UniProtKB/TrEMBL annotation:
SMART domains: AAA (SM00382), SRP54 (SM00962), SRP54_N (SM00963). GTP binds at residues 107-114, 190-194, 248-251. It is found in: Cell inner membrane; Cytoplasm. The keyword Transferase does not apply. This is Signal recognition particle protein. Its EC number is 3.6.5.4. Part of the signal recognition particle protein translocation system, which is composed of SRP and FtsY. SRP is a ribonucleoprotein composed of Ffh and a 4.5S RNA molecule. It catalyses: GTP + H2O = GDP + phosphate + H(+). NCBIfam families: ffh (TIGR00959). Keywords: Cytoplasm, GTP-binding, Hydrolase, Nucleotide-binding, Ribonucleoprotein, RNA-binding, Signal recognition particle. It comes from the Bacteria. Transmembrane segments: none annotated. The lineage of its organism: Bacteria, Pseudomonadati, Pseudomonadota, Alphaproteobacteria, Sphingomonadales. It comes from Novosphingobium hassiacum. InterPro entries: AAA+_ATPase, P-loop_NTPase, Signal_recog_part_SRP54_M_sf, Signal_recog_particl_SRP54_hlx, Signal_recog_particle_SRP54_M, SRP, SRP54, SRP54_GTPase_dom.
């Protein structure tokens, strides 16, 4: 599901993620890629436009939370916008009415309508303890009524006995009576499909709807048909009052265009996703989980949500081990900076770290606040992997580049290098003194 879209977006965010600071250009560049990814996923153009505009505006205007990077915050904004685009909350079936509550299933032939009818019946029976009956009103396709009967036997749900020669409205009337007599909770009417949206189909559907007064009218569409599925939904909703969409074959849908555009274009919620041929391969459609699946970054999203002071214990231990061996490169400094943010910024850190006391005093003197931590993080983020390990590789030209890349000045880069030197020196002294016992505890 959504594999190709997921891969594309993953790539965009990986490039943003490591950054300590994001410029407007970064955001706009990333959004250009998001736009292409969504268009390639066959999402409707107006939906893509609205989405990208929203996200861009939010991402550029935001203030940076402590303990997450701006890149991570962009992931969260995109996640929220996706959830919104998918319909916000989960749209549940509304079955609150005097039984038998009728669910009318409509759709084109081959969309998976009959299979979905049986899947939902099974779900209602097993998960909601409902007594369900199914009736096929499809008198056009010879084997249609037979097919529903077989499926009914497989899922253990009663089907209305077949009487050859009856018309759809007659079958519906008979089904309602039978359902009442047998104290059925939910009656599912599987209407006839057609190859195309045509007037005869619409008229029949309206007639059945008029006499059965369904609480839910669910349109079944095939996710693999992309924007066609959305167009079909538009045509149907002009004729009957659809209460929801069942999107089938999501299991094979790597692009996701129908799922992503459906709500925004038609205003109708997707209530179920078909995820395979088996009769239990159906899921209620949860926008949050789907967005999570598309982005594959649930970890970051929840982290930003908490934005809480959590120290990454593992990193801290690794760092302590390296420090007591006298090793301290830019990567270590970065870990340290992030921990400082997590621990409550500069103020909370006074005197805890060898070398830091002096650096902190210098910072305070020059009026630096906690934003400086993010800026330093960004400077390190703009260095190459080699430079982070060996900062002495940075020549004048590279310093200019790094400053530009991180949205800072060369003097900021120099200050950071100086601070690193002092800290590295302090680490060496610690090693000479035989290591710092309990240094790890400082971070743990
Ligand atoms: P109808 O003509 O709309 O009633 O379509 P059917 O219910 O007969 O389904 C047509 C085919 O699609 C069958 O082979 C189903 O097994 C298959 N199908 C239905 N839903 C799904 C789904 O969610 N995933 C997959 N992979 N196949 C499905």
């Amino acid at each position: 599901m959504f594999d190709s879209l997921s891969d594309r977006l993953g790539g965009v965010f990986d490039r943003l993620r490591g950054r300590g600071a994001l410029s407007e250009d970064d955001v706009r560049g990333a959004m250009r890629e998001v736009r292409i990814a969504l268009l390639e996923a066959d999402v409707a153009l107006p939906v893509v436009r609205r989405f990208v505009d929203n996200v861009t505006e939010l991402a550029i205007g935001q203030s940076v939370l402590r303990s997450v990077t701006p890149g991570q915050q962009v992931v969260k904004i995109v996640n929220d916008a996706l959830v919104e685009m998918l319909g916000g909350g989960t749209a549940e079936l509304d079955l609150v009415a005097t039984p038998p509550v009728v669910i009318m299933m409509v759709g084109l032939q081959g969309s998976g309508k009959t299979t979905s009818t049986a899947k939902i019946a099974k779900l209602l029976k097993e998960k909601h303890g409902k007594k369900v009956m199914m009736a096929s009103l499809d008198v056009n396709r010879p084997a249609a009524q037979e097919q529903l009967k077989v499926l009914g036997e497989q899922v253990g749900v009663a089907t209305l006995p077949i009487i050859v020669g009856q018309l759809p409205v007659e079958i519906a009337t008979r089904a309602l009576n039978a359902a009442k007599l047998q104290a059925v909770d939910v009656l599912m009417l599987d209407t006839a499909g057609r190859l195309h949206v045509d007037q005869a189909l619409m008229d029949e559907m309206k007639a059945v709807s008029a006499i059965s007064v369904p609480k839910e009218t669910l349109l079944v569409v095939d996710a693999l048909t992309g924007q066609d599925a959305v167009n079909v939904a538009q045509s149907f909703s002009g004729e009957v009052d659809l209460t929801g969409i069942v999107l089938t074959r999501m299991d094979g849908d790597a692009r996701g265009g129908a799922a992503l555009s459906m709500r925004a274009v038609t205003g109708k919620p997707i209530k179920f996703a078909g995820t395979g041929e088996k009769l239990d391969a159906i899921e209620p459609f949860h926008p949050e989980r789907v967005a999570g699946r598309i982005l594959g970054m649930g970890d970051i999203v929840s982290m930003v949500e908490k934005a809480a002071a959590t120290i990454q214990v593992e990193d801290a231990e690794k760092l302590a081990a390296r420090m007591s061996k006298g090793q301290f490169d830019m990567n270590d400094l970065r870990t340290q900076l992030r921990q400082m943010q997590n621990m409550g910024g500069l103020g909370a850190l006074a005197g805890m770290m060898p070398g830091m006391k002096k650096a902190k005093a210098a910072m305070a003197q020059s009026g630096m606040d906690d934003r400086v931590l993010l800026r330093m993080d960004a400077i390190i983020g703009s260095m190459t992997v080699k430079e982070r390990e060996k900062p002495e590789l940075l020549n004048a030209k590279r310093k200019i580049r790094v400053a530009k890349g991180s949205g800072t000045q060369v003097q900021d880069v120099n200050k950071l290098l100086k601070m690193h030197q002092e800290m590295a020196k302090a680490m060496k002294q610690i090693k000479k003194m035989g290591g710092l016992k309990g240094l790890g505890a400082l971070f743990g």
